[in-house]
């Protein structure tokens, strides 16, 4: 083979190598762009909802107070007034499962307690609007619920029905107090979803064990890590 043929062959080989390298480079660029797009979609395109958990529940008092009416003939058949005196403290944890977005409260986060389907605690403000939870972070809020009605004996509050009173009496006899904590608010996911908010609602079923103790004894009953749905 003469020099011209050898030079032509070498030139073709170099051209083929350059073309192959260019194809590989283009494929690498495409794959990198695809991976970057997938990461951005996973980070900012899909917002994982907030996870709420009750990490601590302590019951210091739970008394059923029954007040009968006056002994006059007109009131002889009147139903007794049934109230409950309680002192309950809870710790609620909000967990942000997103690894690139922080959570910001767009409205105040409130909590209420329900027993036998009835609300018996006026509610508590857990956090104000603007409170934020960092990515992969958690925030804890304390709920203090206690009966404080000065118009009822012993600071008790009405249960709202004979059915609820019977249920509480049954649970006291069994040594178990079942109550629901309900959380409500609105959240935004930052830095995306500007101007939009999502409703945050969660129900936490609590089952507190009550030791057999005489009336007036200070009870300390703890339940940990209750998932809310």
From TrEMBL:
It comes from the Eukaryota. InterPro entries: NDR1-like. GO terms for cellular component: plasma membrane; plasmodesma. Its main location: membrane. The keyword Membrane applies. Keywords: Membrane, Transmembrane, Transmembrane helix. It is found in: Membrane. The chain crosses the membrane at residues 30-50. GO terms for biological process: defense response to other organism. The keyword Secreted does not apply. PANTHER family: OS04G0114300 PROTEIN, OS05G0367900 PROTEIN. This is Uncharacterized protein. It comes from Sorghum bicolor.
């Amino acid at each position: 083979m003469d020099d011209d043929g050898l030079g032509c062959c070498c030139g073709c080989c170099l051209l083929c190598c350059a073309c192959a390298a260019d194809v590989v480079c283009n494929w690498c660029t495409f794959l990198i762009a695809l991976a970057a797009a997938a990461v951005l979609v996973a980070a900012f395109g899909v917002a994982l909802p907030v996870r709420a958990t009750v990490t601590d529940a302590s019951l210091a008092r739970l008394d059923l107070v029954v007040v009968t009416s006056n002994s006059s003939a007109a009131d002889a058949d009147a139903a007794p007034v049934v109230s409950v005196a309680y002192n309950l403290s809870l710790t609620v944890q909000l967990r942000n499962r997103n690894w690139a977005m922080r959570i910001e409260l767009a409205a105040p986060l409130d909590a209420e307690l329900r027993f036998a389907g009835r609300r018996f605690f006026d509610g508590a403000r857990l956090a104000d609007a603007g409170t934020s939870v960092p990515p992969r972070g958690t925030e804890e809020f304390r709920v203090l619920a206690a009966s404080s009605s000065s118009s009822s004996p012993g600071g008790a509050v009405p249960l709202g029905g004979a059915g609820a009173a019977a249920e509480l009496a049954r649970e006291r006899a069994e040594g178990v107090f079942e109550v629901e904590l309900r959380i409500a608010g609105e959240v935004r996911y930052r830095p995306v979803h500007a101007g939009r908010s999502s409703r945050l609602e969660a129900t936490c079923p609590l089952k507190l064990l009550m030791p057999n103790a005489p009336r007036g004894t200070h009870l300390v009953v703890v339940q940990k890590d209750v998932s809310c749905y």
